[in-house]
Specification:
Elements (H helix, E strand, L loop, with lengths): L5 E2 L1 H6 L5 H9 L7 E3 L2 E5 H15 L1 E3 H7 L4 H10 L5 E3 L2 E5 H12 L1 E2 L1 H8 L5 H9 L5 E3 L2 E5 H19 L1
Antiparallel strand pairs: 1-3, 2-3, 4-6, 5-6, 7-9, 8-9
């Protein structure tokens, strides 16, 4: 490997990568294979440097998984598990996980605006989720099945409650 095919930590930073101090720390701790000290300065192989800069540019357009988990009202460990298993679309860059803004919006719509059948049953005054599942199967209640689990839009539950109120008013008259 010649010096022409390697670059310094400063050059990686100038090209849009992480701060040169971050690159230097990672170099000292063996994060980048093939890197070595030449004339007193760390040199990184060009193909590794290109990957570092590319990853940094992608990460700037994404949201860290921990932040996405908080935005959805869930713990970061559950999101990490979902990312590793491929349940959610996430990018693993360096030692961190990220999601795109579009994926975060999808996750927020899923987790913040829907509830599982057990929660829907409580909202509708049932003791178990069986009547909810029966409504879903008969087409009386719209639900999304994602990864084998039903999620019911809160709007659907509110609509069902409004219909119940109308029926009760009609019976009282």
């Amino acid at each position: 490997m010649t010096i022409n095919k390697t670059v310094t930590a400063e050059r990686i930073s100038q090209a849009g990568g992480p701060k040169h101090t971050t690159v230097a720390y990672r170099l000292q701790h063996g994060y980048y294979p093939g890197s070595r000290i030449v004339n007193g300065a760390w040199r990184v192989p060009m193909e590794i440097a290109v990957q570092i800069v590319t990853d940094a540019k992608i990460a700037k357009d994404c949201i860290p998984l921990r932040t996405a988990a908080k935005a959805c009202g869930l713990g970061p460990s559950s999101f990490n598990h979902k990312a590793r298993s491929g349940t959610i679309s996430a990018l693993h860059i360096g030692d961190r996980w990220y999601v795109t803004k579009v994926e975060l919006y999808r996750l927020q719509c899923y987790y913040l605006n829907t509830v599982p059948p057990e929660e829907a049953a409580k909202m509708l005054g049932y003791e178990s989720s069986f009547p909810i599942r029966k409504l879903i199967h008969s087409g009386g209640l719209i639900a999304n099945k994602i990864n084998g689990h039903y999620r019911i839009p809160i709007v659907e539950i509110e609509q069902l409650l409004a219909e119940r109120k109308k029926k009760l008013k009609g019976m009282m008259l």
